[in-house]
Amino acid sequence: MDDQTTPAGTRNPYAPPKAPVLEARPTHERGKRPLPVAFAVGALGVYVLMSVLPVVLRGPPPWGPPVTPMARWAAVVLFVSGALGVVYAVAHGQHWARVITLLGAITEVVLRLRASPPLGAAEPLQWMLDFESVPIGVAVCLLFLTPGREWFRRRPALAIRIEILMRRRGHG
């Protein structure tokens, strides 16, 4: 009779376990990037390109204060580096970058709706650039719907190990 059993032969439920206990801690490990997330990363890249294109082609907007060319290019470089940093974080499954993308999309759509002229009143280049909001909207939809949403979710490390073992054995 060991110290965890009673004279009646039942196990003491309050005794500490003898085997090592593996806690299920959340982890950032993810599987292969799903196709919708890859498309979302591409759409975010197109959005960054479309955002910088008007500044490169036409210069700064006329409604702002006059700026020097150096300040304009510094702002472009700052925007592009920040935006590409967020795109990189989205591509690597960072949840905070997905939220930043959502906030950017909301801001983009609200500002675009407030500032754009009616569709037929703009010149062709401006009309094309008014669709700048489309790629970020598509990216947000792909990131927040399944399977993109599932890929960003943190899962317990134990569940990932079990899933890997099941795949190796051919059960999944």
Describe this entry's structure for a reader.
Helix 1 (35-58) runs antiparallel to helix 2 (69-91), helix 1 packs antiparallel against helix 5 (133-144) and helix 3 packs antiparallel against helix 5. This protein has a domain at 32-58 and 69-149. The model has no long low-confidence stretch (mean pLDDT 77). Strands 1-2 form a two-stranded antiparallel ribbon. The chain has seven helices and two strands. The radius of gyration is 26 Å and the shape is elongated. It has 172 residues and is mostly helical. The protein starts with 25 loop residues before the first strand and ends with a helix. Helix content is 60%, strand content 2%. It has helices at residues 35-58, 69-91, 95-115, 124-129, 133-144, 148-152, 157-169; strands at residues 26-27, 155-156.
Ends: how far apart?
43 Å
Q: List the strand order in the largest sheet.
A: 1-2
The proportion of residues forming helix, as a percent range, comes to: 55-70%
| Class of secondary structure makeup | mainly alpha
Please give the number of β-strands: 2
> What's the total helix number?
7
Instruction: Give average pLDDT, whole number.
Output: 77
Helix-strand sequence: EHHHHHHEH
Q: Roughly what fraction of the amino acids lie in strands?
A: under 5%
- The geometry reads as elongated
Tell me about the biggest sheet? 2 strands, antiparallel
Low-confidence stretches: none
Radius of gyration: 26 Å
